[in-house]
Design goal:
Oligomer: heterodimer
Strand order of the largest sheet of chain A: 10-12-11-13-14-15-16
Largest interface: A-B, 18 and 16 residues
Low-confidence stretches of chain B: 1-5
Radius of gyration of chain A: 25 Å
Number of strands of chain A: 16
Number of helices of chain A: 15
CATH class of the largest domain in chain A: Alpha Beta
CATH topology of the largest domain in chain A: Rossmann fold
CATH architecture of the largest domain in chain B: 3-Layer(aba) Sandwich
Strand order of the largest sheet of chain B: 3-2-4-5-7-6-12
CATH architecture of the largest domain in chain A: 3-Layer(aba) Sandwich
Radius of gyration of chain B: 20 Å
Amino acid sequence: MPTEVIMPKVDMDMASGKLAVWHVAEGETVKKGAALFDIETDKAAMEVEAPATGRLHHILAAPGETVDVGRPVAFIYAEGEAVGQSPAAAPVTAVEEKPAAVAVPPVVAAQVIGPDSADLRATPVARRLAREGGLELASITGTGPRGRIQRADVEAAVARAKPGPVVELARPVVEVPKPVAVVAPAAPITWEAQPGDLNVTTRKGSGVPLVLIHGFAADSYGWRPLEEALPKDQALIRIDLPSHGRSPLRRVDGFADLAKQLVQVFDRVAEGPVHLLGHSLGGGLALALADIRPRQVKTLSLIAPAGLGPEIDGAALNGIARAGSVDSLAPWLKRLTARPDGISHDFAKAAMLARLDPALREAQQELAAVLFPDGVQAFDLTAALSRIAMPTLMIWGRDDHILPWRQALAAPGEVALHLLRSVGHVPHIEDPETVAALIGRHIRG
Amino acid sequence: MNAQVQIDAEVRELSYAEAIREAMAIALESDPAVVLMGEDIGTYGGAFQVTGDLIDRFGPERVMDTPISELGGAGVAVGAALTGLKPIFEFQFSDFAALAMEQIVNQAAKLRYMLGGEAEVPVVFRMPSGSGTGAAAQHSQSFEAWFGHVPGLKVVQPSTPAEAKGLLLAALADPDPVIVFEHKLLYKMKGPVPAGHYITPIGKAAVVRPGQHVTIVASAIMVHRALEAALRLAKEGIEAEVIDLRTVRPLDRETIIASVKKTGKLLCVYEGVKTLGVGAEISALVAESEAFDYLDAPIQRLGGAEAPIPYNPDLERAAVPQSPDIERVARQLAKGEV
């Protein structure tokens, strides 16, 4: 079987890509990993590497043509392999300037838009997952009644696609010490729990310290922008969650267990009453902490806290937890902010550097499955929110794509709500000045 | 999650009928405006012996036998409610409410709206409902969807003794007309019932069994049939989430949508005729909601047959969903065979 060369998905918003130039001509040999062709997106030009070694045949897309993501653009035959008929054709969605020179024979084009694709059966969730995973439904075999594509079929296809061309083609941007960017379909790493306490770092200062608890798949590094915007003498205590940052990898069997692990470290670090701030999952944990240790918490600040409704973008969580390279991480990180350009490349690079350990990623995937099974927040903190009595502030971005801001409406009337416009899931990174000003006012009373 | 109110009270085993009687006794004791009306509810104790000895305890001025005219009786109840009383009017069979539609639908449900909010009709209609008693076509129907179609009415369907008491007390506390459908086959069912006054909120469904593979939304006796089916399915590794609907109008959208988003599969089970029934409304609200993008199979409904309830016991059973039917369809849904 020849190896399919497909149009890779290099950007979250990308539905199709324009082929700019071929570096290898039809019939020539190519080595796996060598530059094969260039694509142009709205944002950048990008080199795509050959997914296999062999001879290039059946070039389906000419320079200037736009091809849907996931569609084949050519095939690579292994040395000695017989070159057969073109096994597939790339659906051309647009051809610039010279419609007469369409490379695809009309018969093939007719097949692409023919009754086969119109008759395609897929459940709504299968369609959504395929859309989110950048997969063509037509490339998936349905195992349901009358060939209907169901959730399990898409999930299997996503699992197959993971180590396949899309990831392999990704251009390694970051110099990584281990070859984790090129993912091989190797046996899954079985991570082991590690001993030791959770990692706690402090910034010395005056007054009551502010304890910071970061979100899922983040770490204390993510508080940097906010720390700079807060008064320089504000004492800080940052906690890395289990299996995050520099904390040991730990098994967690549910939200309550995670909260319990956090209470242990909280009791150790909080000598007197403290101000408490948490983001997302860390917000949910801060809320739980405030509920468990009400006398140790002077004020509570929650940024887009988890646990106030069932909805959460499970695909983004899993995508971030799983991503093994900047190219697979960056598109998901872009969901965190109101606008896709809110996360800089340097930020994505730094975030990836912090998650190079495959065991850490495995542990976080497992944590996601425990806390957010089937993309649902499996824990409900609305009761805790109605119980707590200390001054509480909630900040939420109105363009949060991960946790819908309407979950903030679960808060009782005493909670101060700040719903920021044009801000997404990470207000403390997107608009640290506003967030610092709100929190500063809140903790000063 | 579960809307059941926390109660720090003594809990006894009572039957569904006893729980309803206890709710009425509490209401009669605590509020002089509460009166009971209905055919044969006094000395005879009610067609299903639900009012029982209440006439002996509260006297004929508060437990009133009405003449054999549903339209007349319901009219008196609506008028009494308009002028300050809180009547509980019992129909002998919910089927006979057809005779009183004018008073329920055109008067009770409309007056608050038509009088600019200046009038209230705090009446409760108790309606013994459902099939399974061999009472045939004119005494076995399920009219939840009929009344659920009328703005101005609230419609509840308790499935347990505790719910029967809590929903009836909630109905009495509600300033608008509430229809309580009591399932005749449940009257003798026993279950834990807290003592004293408590309310099971109207408009809140309850997840009575959590699961992740398929959502079954059921009401009244169908809740028990769904739970039986879920128990058997669990032995095969299929975990069905069973939702006790409790209220038909207003429907608890949030609970249903959250569950379907979790499981991706929905089975609605209801005793009323399938076409244009309660399950049709639930299917539509899910299809219209954000849960649509989570559906992994066509929504399924199990409802009553498109026929009058037959007298023959085998046919009567076959005319409404039974637990093996629920088990079969839920299994097909969970396995992706639908």
